[in-house]
User: Which sequence fits this backbone?
C-alpha cells in the first residue's frame, strides 16, 4: 500500500493571528550597569518573540505620573536602579501593580531604592548589605518547580555565562515561590549554596517575576544577554507577569480531534505515560525518561527509547525542544544489527552550540547522509515542529513548516551520499520497508510532545480501488478528449473541442485523494472534487487547479460554474511548488466543510466552505488544441 505524503502540520504552538500583543513598558534611564545597551537588548528580546508590543521610558519620574497611561500596559520591565521617582509616580506604580499590572525585575533592578519598603517587599530579594557575587562564569540553572507556567516546559539552563548573585536579602517577610536556582560555587568566589535565580510572587493582583540574571557591565562582556537561554527566561517571565500564563502550546498538546482520528491519525506518545515504549534492550524505560506536564523529557542518562510497534509507510509529526548544547535524534524503520539499532535518523541538535558540525549532521538532516536545506540554525529553548514522511523508498524531513530533506533510498544520489558517509559498509542501510521508532539518548536534555502518526496500517481499510478492471471501468467521460489507461496511469489528450472530464461513477463526501500529475504536453487542467453534473452534461464543483502558465496558480481552488474561490496570488511558496518538467504529487483532503490541497507536499489551499458537500472526482483536460495530461496511481481513502 502506498501512503499519502503531505504537509499536515498541527501547528499548536503558533499564536493566533488575532492574539492581542502584550503591552510592556520598559523602565530605564539610570543604572549602575550598562543600561544604554541592556535596555535596547531587552526591547529586542521581547520584540523578536512576536508576542509583545514594547515601549521604553527613560524618564520614569515624569512618565509614571500619568496613571491612565500606566494602566494601559500589561506589564512593566524594570531595568532601573537610579534615583527614586517621587510622587505621584511612586504611588501610581504601586497602585497599578496592586490592581493587576505585572512586573519583571531583571538583574540590578533588585539593587534599587534602599529604604523604600513597599518596593523592597515587592521585589522580595534585594541587593543589600551582605549580598555579593563571584566572578562572571558559566553556570547551570535548575528548574526546581515544574508546575509553574514559566518553568513547566523550560529546560534547565546549561552553562549560562553570567554574574551569580549570592546572599540576596529576603525583605520584610515577603511571601514568594522560588522556582529556579543555581549553585554558587566557592571555586568561582561563590557562597557554596543554592541561590535563587527565578522568584515569583503576588503583590495584590499583580504578578511579580524576578531574576537576578542578566549582568552587563559598562565596557564588559555582553554574553549574558546574548545567550538565548536568558532571552527565553525573560520572555516567559514577562509573559507570565502580564497574563498569568505562558503560551507554549502545552494546553492542547498530545490531542487529536475527531476529524484527525477520522483521517487516520493516532498518538505515538499519549502525554500521560510511556505506554507503547521500552528501552532499546527490551526492558522498561530508564528513570531518566520522564513524562512532565504532557511532555516526554530526557532528563538524565536513560538509554535509547524504542517503540514497541513497527510501521511501514507513515507520516510522523512531532514537536521538540532542546536544552543548550543537546544532541539527540529520532530514528525510524530501525532494525537491530548486532548490538545496534540502525535506520535513517532525523537529527535533533542544537545547531548553535555545534557550529563546526558538517551540514549532514545539523538538525533535521538525514544524519550523516543528506544535509538539511535549512534557512537558519535550529536553536535551544524553543519548540520546533518536525515531520517525517516515509513512503516506500521516498523520505522527507520537515522542520518548522519547511521541507529540508527530499530523497529516495537507492537512487544514485542517495547511494553516492551513503558511500561517502559512516554507513558506506552497510549496503542495506535505510532499505528496510518496516521498523520501529527510536528516540536517541545522546546526552543532554531534550523534550518531545504531540507525536502524531498516520501509518499505512491505519489507512489500509479506508482505501477504495478506483480501477475496476483493465481499462477505464468505473469512470465516465464527457467532452471531446481522448482518454486511455496505461497500467496505473490515466492519460487525457485534447486536440480541439470543449472542456473534457473523466469522472468517477461513485461519489465521495469525506476523503483523501492523491495522484501524481505530469504534463506531457503542457495545457491547463485540474482535478475536480465534490463535483456534480448540471443538465446531465456540465461539470460543476470544486477544482484543484493545474496551471502551467506564468501565473502559477497550481493547487488553488477554482469552482467550475462559478469562479476562483482561493487562488495563489498571496502564496508565493505555493506558486513555487509545481514543477513544469516532471511528476507533481497532488493531495486533496476533505473533512466536513474543510478542504485542503498540497502540491509536492507544499500547502497550496486551505478552505472552509460548505457549498459542495459531496460529489464525484473528475480529471479535466481544458478546451483548446494543446494538452496531454498523465495522472499516475490515483488513490482514494474514504474517511468514515
Assistant:
Amino acid at each position: 500500500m502506498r501512503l499519502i505524503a503531505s504537509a499536515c502540520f498541527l501547528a499548536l504552538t503558533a499564536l493566533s493571528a488575532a492574539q492581542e500583543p502584550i503591552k510592556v513598558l520598559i523602565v530605564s534611564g539610570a543604572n549602575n550597569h550598562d543600561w544604554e545597551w541592556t535596555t535596547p537588548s531587552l526591547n529586542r528580546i521581547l520584540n523578536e518573540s512576536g508576542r509583545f508590543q514594547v515601549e521604553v521610558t527613560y524618564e520614569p519620574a515624569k512618565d509614571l505620573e500619568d496613571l491612565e497611561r500606566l494602566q494601559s500596559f500589561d506589564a512593566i520591565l524594570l531595568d532601573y536602579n537610579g534615583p527614586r521617582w517621587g510622587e505621584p509616580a511612586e504611588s501610581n506604580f504601586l497602585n497599578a501593580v496592586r490592581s493587576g499590572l505585572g512586573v519583571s525585575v531583571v538583574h540590578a533592578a533588585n539593587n534599587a531604592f534602599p529604604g523604600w519598603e513597599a518596593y523592597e517587599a515587592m521585589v522580595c530579594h534585594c541587593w543589600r548589605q551582605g549580598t555579593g557575587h563571584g566572578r562572571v562564569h558559566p553556570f547551570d540553572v535548575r528548574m526546581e518547580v515544574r508546575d509553574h507556567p514559566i518553568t513547566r516546559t523550560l529546560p534547565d539552563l546549561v552553562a549560562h555565562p553570567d554574574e551569580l548573585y549570592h546572599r540576596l536579602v529576603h525583605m520584610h517577610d515577603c511571601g514568594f515561590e522560588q522556582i529556579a536556582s543555581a549553585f554558587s560555587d566557592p571555586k568561582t568566589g561563590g557562597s557554596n549554596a543554592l541561590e535563587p535565580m527565578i522568584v515569583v510572587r503576588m503583590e495584590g493582583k499583580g504578578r511579580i517575576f524576578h531574576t537576578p540574571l542578566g549582568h552587563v557591565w559598562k565596557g564588559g562582556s555582553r554574553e549574558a544577554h546574548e545567550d538565548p537561554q536568558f532571552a527565553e527566561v525573560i520572555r516567559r517571565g514577562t509573559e507570565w507577569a502580564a497574563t498569568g500564563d505562558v503560551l507554549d502550546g502545552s494546553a492542547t498538546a498530545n490531542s487529536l480531534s475527531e476529524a484527525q482520528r477520522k483521517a487516520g491519525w493516532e498518538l505515538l506518545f499519549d502525554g500521560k505515560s510511556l505506554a507503547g515504549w521500552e528501552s532499546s534492550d527490551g526492558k522498561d524505560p530508564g528513570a531518566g525518561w520522564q513524562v512532565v506536564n504532557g511532555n516526554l523529557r530526557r532528563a538524565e542518562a536513560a538509554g535509547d527509547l524504542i517503540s514497541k510497534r513497527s510501521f511501514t509507510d507513515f507520516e510522523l509529526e512531532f514537536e521538540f525542544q532542546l536544552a543548550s548544547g543537546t544532541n539527540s535524534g529520532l530514528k525510524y524503520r530501525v532494525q537491530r544489527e548486532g548490538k545496534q539499532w540502525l535506520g535513517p535518523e532525523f537529527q535533533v541538535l542544537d545547531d548553535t552550540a555545534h557550529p563546526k558540525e558538517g551540514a549532514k549532521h545539523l538538525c533535521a538532516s538525514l544524519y550523516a547522509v543528506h544535509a538539511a536545506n535549512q534557512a537558519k540554525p535550529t536553536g535551544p529553548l524553543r519548540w520546533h515542529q518536525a515531520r517525517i514522511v516515509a513512503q516506500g523508498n521516498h523520505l522527507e524531513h520537515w522542520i518548522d513548516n519547511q521541507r529540508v530533506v527530499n530523497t529516495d533510498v537507492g537512487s544514485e544520489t542517495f547511494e553516492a551520499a551513503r558511500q561517502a558517509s559512516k554507513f558506506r559498509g552497510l549496503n542495506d542501510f535505510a532499505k528496510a520497508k518496516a521498523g520501529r521508532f527510536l528516540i536517541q539518548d545522546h546526552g543532554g536534555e531534550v523534550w518531545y510532545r504531540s507525536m502524531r502518526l498516520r501509518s499505512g496500517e491505519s489507512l489500509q481499510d479506508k482505501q477504495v480501488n478506483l480501477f475496476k478492471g483493465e481499462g477505464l471501468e468505473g469512470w465516465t467521460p464527457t467532452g471531446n478528449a481522448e482518454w486511455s489507461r496505461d497500467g496505473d496511469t490515466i492519460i487525457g489528450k485534447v486536440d480541439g473541442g470543449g472542456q473534457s472530464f473523466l469522472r468517477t461513477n461513485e461519489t465521495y463526501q469525506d476523503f483523501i485523494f492523491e495522484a501524481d500529475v505530469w504534463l506531457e504536453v503542457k495545457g491547463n487542467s485540474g482535478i475536480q472534487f465534490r463535483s456534480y453534473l448540471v443538465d446531465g452534461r456540465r461539470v460543476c464543483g470544486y477544482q484543484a487547479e493545474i496551471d502551467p502558465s506564468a501565473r502559477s496558480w497550481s493547487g488553488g481552488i477554482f469552482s467550475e460554474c462559478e469562479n476562483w474561490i482561493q487562488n495563489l496570488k498571496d502564496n508565493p511558496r505555493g506558486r513555487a511548488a509545481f514543477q513544469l518538467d516532471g511528476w507533481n504529487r497532488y493531495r486533496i483532503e476533505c473533512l466536513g466543510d474543510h478542504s485542503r490541497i498540497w502540491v509536492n507536499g507544499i500547502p497550496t489551499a486551505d478552505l472552509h466552505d460548505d457549498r459542495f458537500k459531496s460529489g464525484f472526482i473528475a480529471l479535466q483536460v481544458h478546451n483548446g488544441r494543446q494538452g496531454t495530461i498523465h495522472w499516475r496511481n490515483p488513490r482514494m481513502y474514504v474517511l468514515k
In short: Residues 470 and 487 are 8 Å apart (CA to CA). The first strand starts at residue 22 and ends at 27. The chain has three domains: 22-243, 258-460, 465-638.
